[in-house]
Amino acid sequence: MLMVVVVVxxxxxxxxMVVVVVxxxxxxxxxxxxxxxxxVVKVVVKVMVVVVTVMMVFVMINAVNQSPPRSLxxxxx
Length: 77
Known about the structure:
With about 80 residues, the chain is mainly alpha-helical. The protein has one helix spanning about 1-75. Keywords: Membrane, Transmembrane, Transmembrane helix.
């Protein structure tokens, strides 16, 4: 009878250990996911800023380049 109780207690201990390990793994995965999400957000924000600045530069260059040709046909006519 004592042996059975000891075995049951051991089993419970093992189950508890496994549960704790699984919980720790889940927490680690969650933390890693959050960190990856933060990195992705940072990278996306940087890329968005670069894209917006490049677009603005292109728009400025187009405006500067297109203003003389637009006026030239008017002068020709």
